[in-house]
Design brief:
Chain lengths: 353, 99
């Protein structure tokens, strides 16, 4: 069975290549559907397959750039990418990320910040979870009220409406973001991107997990546009990250290419699934992914207090992450195939009549 | 005068080169930088070339990687697009208009 293993030229380890393809398909589906890079899912997966941690992070970022490009291509054709918004946000994201990264280095020189950063991450994830599920609950309440009044709720109605307050800020220059359908001060996307980039820099993550809800709840982007635009951001920041990690000698391009074979198909499935799932369906699934991520981070924190259960927690964290990846991939794929079958059936029926 | 300047310049260069070494020898330096070298002895063909490129220059290696990632992304994306187009669904528009 030697043919199932490939020798990685830089890391010097033999890797089970079908595992890389399966991992690529899984994270491709989720990434294309939610609009995030998904480093929290890929890194443990690569680690399990035998990559040293340093190579796992770099290889993940390299594959993330390619995967996001594939997803952006598909979302762009659906009209889900607001390139103007993406470019405006890019400036704030890059500056914010650098400020955050410098800040964490400064904090590291002062003392041990590892614990604070992890707890900050948990707090942020809990906040996002609360935002997503309270938004869903409020929207459902509105639906029930509308139904009781014998009316139908507007398709564009949302649960949380914070963005309406932010849109009242009229500091010039004002920008019209046509694809997202937003007219606001240019300082709003710049500030949001700076803050999300800063948090990503501090936490050492790509930022898709924070930027996606920020685009929805603060900027007021429709869910589909938030997904597409976030992927555009991840694509560029991923390429920048890939360059820095490659220069440090921490990227195994051969593995990234093998993963991209799976991710190319996965990203198509994830992106096309957004065609058949309503905005709030995406938000619910996103909320579940955030809950999974929160559990995995908590399982990494526990051994800091009880070192004796480190091995158990590591195994549990991996099981949680891979379980979430598998469950969400299956759910999204099923929805995509059901939707596609229905569309083909309608098309055939229309042609027949 | 020129000879004096030449001597001063030479001395300055020597100090600049030796001073960090002296500090390191006195225990003032940090850990030695770790250089990871790809073992190309078991590799052949394209893989061996790739490993050699990594060993010879991280700059060229980075440049080639950064060019290859988007190229491969576009290639695989287009191929996946072609496969998806045979499914028979509309891949250019989305009917759902919901927030």
């Amino acid at each position: 069975m030697d043919w199932l293993y490939v020798l990685m030229p830089i890391a010097g380890v033999h890797i089970f290549w079908p595992g890389l393809i399966i991992l690529g398909i899984g994270v491709g589906i989720i990434g294309g559907f939610f609009g995030m890079g998904g480093a929290w899912m890929v890194t443990p997966g690569l680690n399990i397959l035998g990559f040293p941690m340093a190579f796992a992070i770099g290889t993940d970022i390299a594959h993330m750039a390619g995967k996001s490009l594939i997803s952006t291509m598909r979302h762009g054709k659906f009209g889900n990418v607001d390139y103007k918004l993406g470019l405006i946000m890019l400036v704030g994201t890059v500056i914010g990320f650098e400020v955050g990264a410098q800040m964490i280095m400064w904090l590291e020189r002062i003392g041990r910040v590892d614990m604070i950063v992890r707890w900050l991450y948990v707090l942020l994830l809990l906040l996002i979870t609360w935002m997503v599920f309270s938004d869903i609950a409020k929207r459902r309440k509105k639906e029930r009220e509308a139904k009781a009044a014998g009316e139908e709720l507007d398709a564009l109605a949302t649960g949380l409406e914070w963005h309406k307050t932010f849109h009242k800020i009229k500091i010039p220059p004002m920008v019209h973001l046509k694809v997202a359908g937003i007219y606001c001060s240019a300082w709003l996307p710049i500030t949001v991107s700076f803050l999300t980039g800063w948090l990503a820099g501090i936490l050492g993550i790509g930022g898709g997990l924070i930027r996606m809800p920020a685009l929805i709840y603060i900027l007021g982007c429709p869910t589909h546009v938030a997904v597409g635009t976030d992927l555009f951001e991840v694509m560029i920041s991923g390429l920048y990250g890939a360059a820095t990690y490659t220069y440090k000698g921490r990227v195994e391009l051969v593995a990234a290419i093998i993963m991209l074979v799976g991710a190319a198909m996965g990203a198509q499935i994830g992106a096309v699934a957004t065609k058949y799932i309503k905005g709030y369906g995406i938000r619910i699934a996103f909320g579940c992914a955030v809950v999974g991520c929160t559990f995995s981070v908590i399982l990494k924190i526990i051994p800091m207090y009880i070192p004796s259960i480190q091995a158990t927690c590591d195994v549990l964290a991996t099981v949680v992450v891979l379980g979430v990846v598998a469950a969400l991939s299956v759910y999204i794929s099923l929805k995509m195939f059901q939707g596609a079958a229905e569309e083909v059936r309608r098309k055939n029926a229309a042609t027949g009549s | 005068m020129r000879r004096l300047w030449t001597k001063l310049l030479g001395l300055g260069t020597l100090v600049a080169l030796l001073l960090p070494e002296m500090v390191l020898a006195a225990g003032g330096g940090g850990a030695a930088p770790v250089v990871i070298v790809a073992d190309t002895r078991k590799l052949s063909g394209l893989m061996a070339w790739w490993g050699d490129l990594y060993n010879e220059s991280h700059v060229y290696f980075t440049m080639v990687t950064v060019i290859l990632i988007p190229l491969i992304g576009v290639l695989f994306g287009t191929l996946a697009d072609l496969i998806m187009s045979h499914v028979g669904i509309d891949l250019k528009s989305r009917d759902l208009a919901e927030h």
